[in-house]
Write a structure and sequence with these properties.
The chain is mainly α. It has one domain. Helix 1 packs across helix 5, helix 1 packs antiparallel against helix 6 and helix 2 packs across helix 5.
Length: 147
């Protein structure tokens, strides 16, 4: 390869990488969607109403962008395979908001199960313990970082 062809190859490689990253970013919105809804439930159970509302809104926005990209076939099928099963199982319905609602239901049920059951999967009846478990899950899941 000649020295003059090297800069052209580098530019082409960078452009291809940028396009792939843009597609990956759209696929990552599916993770943001699910994580934001899960964290919203943790925040709510921990008594952080404002944070729960913020995370819910993040989930809605990410969900709409993600599903728009899916509908417009802007995300390769291979990138969808790495998403949480709670997203891929529920990606059908009559409207985008309906699908987002199904994903929300699944994510918040999973989060509730984490908060309302102990390590032996027994139901926790004590509200103080549930709140402590929700606070721990919120911190362990890095929920404050979701934007």
């Amino acid at each position: 390869m000649s020295v003059s062809a090297l800069p052209v190859c580098v530019v082409v490689l960078l452009l291809c990488t940028s396009a792939a990253n843009a597609e990956n970013e759209k696929a990552q919105l599916g993770r943001v969607l699910y994580s934001a809804f899960t964290c919203s439930k943790y925040a709510s159970a921990a008594g952080k109403a404002e944070e729960a509302n913020r995370l819910f809104k993040v989930g809605i926005q990410a969900g709409r962008k993600f599903l728009e990209a899916v509908i417009n076939k802007e995300i390769p099928a291979a990138d969808l395979k790495g998403l949480p099963i709670g997203v891929t199982w529920y990606m059908q319905g009559p409207s985008v908001d309906f699908i987002i609602g199904r994903i929300y239901e699944g994510a918040t049920k999973a989060a509730y199960d984490h908060v309302s059951r102990n390590a032996s999967h027994e139901l926790v009846r004590d509200d103080a313990t549930k709140k402590l478990q929700a606070e721990n899950r919120y911190v362990q899941s890095n929920c404050a970082l979701i934007r």
